[in-house]
Amino acid sequence: MAECRARGWNEVDVVFVSGDAYVDHPSFAAALLGRVLEAEGFKVAILPQPAWNNADAFRQFGRPRLCFAVSAGNMDSMINHYTANKKRRNDDAYSPGGRIELRPDRATNVYVQRCREAFKDVPVVAGGVEASLRRVAHFDYWSETVKPSILATSKADLVGFGMGERVLVEICRRLAAGKKIADCRDLRGVAYLLGQKETLPTHEWHDASCDNQTVELPSFEDVTADKVAFATATRLIHHETNPKNGRRLTQRHGDRVLVVNPPALALDERGMDRIYDLPYTRKPHPRYQEPIPAHTMIKDSVTTMRGCFGGCTFCSITMHQGRAIQSRSQDSIVREVQTMAKDPTFKGHISDVGGPTANMYRMRCTRPEIEAKCRRLSCVHPTVCKLLGVDHGPTKQLLKKVREVPGVQSVRVASGIRMDLARFDDDYLDEMARHHVGGQLKVAPEHTSPKVLDLMKKPATSTFDEFAAKFDAASRRAGKDQFLIPYFIASHPGSGVHEMIELAVFLKARGYKPRQVQDFIPAPMDIATCMYWTGLDPMTMQPVETVKKLKDREVQRALMQYFKPENWFVVHKALVDAGRQDLIGSGPQCLIRANPPKVALATRHGGRGPRHGDPTYVHAKDAGTKSRGGMPCDPGSDDDDD
Known about the structure:
The protein is α/β, with parallel strands linked by helices. Among the domains are: 2-196 and 255-260, Rossmann fold (3-Layer(aba) Sandwich), CATH 3.40.50; 300-432, Transcription Regulator spoIIAA. The chain is 33% helix and 12% strand. It has 24 helices and 20 strands. A 9-stranded mixed β-sheet has the order 2-1-3-4-7-8-11-10-9, with helices on both faces. Strand 1 (14-18), helix 2 and strand 2 form a beta-alpha-beta unit. The longest helix has 17 residues, at 461-477. It is globular and about 75 Å long.
């Protein structure tokens, strides 16, 4: 409040509550939305990681004139807190010093309730990833139950889903003009609960190709009791995500009706520039004495675009950022880099230039009239759509301009690239290999099983092999010894022991030894989460085998890291049970030796070493873990979950 008074403010218009530490960088939602509101003339106070055991912290700025805006932070609070095995994480990248316990579980619910306690008559708008993905009845992995819309559990007045700049600004404009929060229910990108005696209002969204009809989802009670109804609801939701033709959704929750308006329209280039050209300091608030890991990682990165048309079933980007690619102008991006280069603390190295997928910059459908009608969930699966513009020219031009900015010594692309697009442009790969890969390039083949890849909406393994060969050739032309960092997922729906064994064989044949295992986490609203919960592919209603027991998930992890001596017993049992004894022995194709190494025996006996007389120790030999010429998948710790 002292900072508010220093600005001459006696009151604030909006109190923005966030589960993250405050970093004034456009990669952090509180900073971006706060700056956007500030540019519109609103007085914004940021309340980062407040004490939530009572409402005192929520009163420190006084009664906000317009509203509270609440977000759990850049991540879902449950994914932030727990691994795929439901174990408590020991750090939080969005907190000072990486400390945990600075935000509650299900932070949106708790923060909204404290706002209500602080000032009962002040409107509360919830947003961010956590609220977006819980705007309808959804499966909650951490309780293994179907939960109602977050509007029902949090008591927020509205949920602004998706990217919130446009909707939050319009809500504040209307409230400032004397309107009520209920007068904002016609906005795109908002969800709300009707009162028991209220009727569904009539709204028309004339700026879209939608037919202004309403799609009724199976009720909360139905999707809770019937997994077929849950799968049906999932299919309906995902077919209404294109803002140009998406229709309003309703879902009955007891005696109330949830209303989800069509998504907000994508920002054009001018709109993106206006947001990212705002005067961010790019630094944490000076109150913090410890570094904030997420800021350390992204402080020298530049966002070029948002959105993703990949439609991967395990990914939440499309449900939050949207399917349409929204790109900044090259001039805006270069201006940001020039500002960074003038900072005396800048070391000359840009850590990343990209977004959810770095090489989707400025890629869009070449037929806008078709795009306005299209309900396809992926533009690249099962094949790349013939109408998709896949020109890498703008990306190459941009990267060249960025690396020519005075004061910039190197420019990396660390956010990962889409292989099935990059393989169309050898010049792009040459540019990447020569200038923008620091020895390792992230890619995401995710699996090798055709069945699993189809369920994921990912390209076939042959695409990875083709891309790997082209990247290797480009690196040789650049005179560099560089490697791919491929990411794979364990325990995804459809992936059983046999599929993971084949993945292990693939890794062995190519010399990859992943140090990190990316375990599937069923995030709310994802198609793959529906498969996990219902055992059905919601798009085809065909059965899908799923792995749910933690013990079975550990087997899949071990198979991906078959080379680790401590995994020997788990891998051995899995191979024997699957009838794959051909992969046990000393042959070049074998995953493990016939006898357990000493480390495996020590691990089995609780780290005390083998017991005297243990028959398994008599002929034990250390199988070793030397790579066959491949590159470890990631330099991170051995037992992290992504």
